[in-house]
Amino acid sequence: MNSAALDYIPQRAPFFLIDDVIYAEGDITRTTLAIKEDNLFIVDGHFTEPGLIENMAQTAGAGTGYRAIKGNKPKPMGYIAALKNINIYSLPALGDTITTEAVFLQALLNFHLVKGKVMVGDQEIANCEFKIFVTPDPQLNKA
Question: How far apart are CA 92 and CA 94, in angstroms?
């Protein structure tokens, strides 16, 4: 696991669903995750729908955290506020590696609109749009 990825988001095991941040430039962030048996979201040999959604959200959060750290600012805390247009075409199996992309579309006040996409190889297996509420006060990030 890329230890730097741990620096970008607040989640920790067993809810940490990113192995590596492979791209974080502009409005786009990409991550990878190897689907392993010890993952909390494995059921009957497959990574489940809630895991895919949380992975997309963590990918968006990793991009926000990366940009904050790069800009010498405190990394904000974000919470999924709404999901829209969820499409799950298939579930990745044990041994698969997923590549997830989060694209920041716009911000309004403390809400970010993001589109997420999950791939296994060249096949898109899931996508959705979500609103993330981002805490404006770094003191709120201390739990």
Answer: 7
d(Cα 113, Cα 62) in Å, to the nearest integer?
A: 15
- DSSP label at residue 93: B
| Cβ–Cβ < 8 Å for 65, 9 | yes
**Rg of the chain (C-alpha set):** 14
Per-residue pLDDT tens for 77-114? 888 999 999 999 999 999 999 999 999 999 999 999 99
pTM: 0.89
Structure tokens at 100: 């997830």
Domain coordinates of the chain in residue numbers? 3-141
**Dist CA 91 CA 48 (whole Å):** 6
> What kind of fold does domain 3-141 have according to CATH?
Thiol Ester Dehydrase; Chain A (3.10.129)
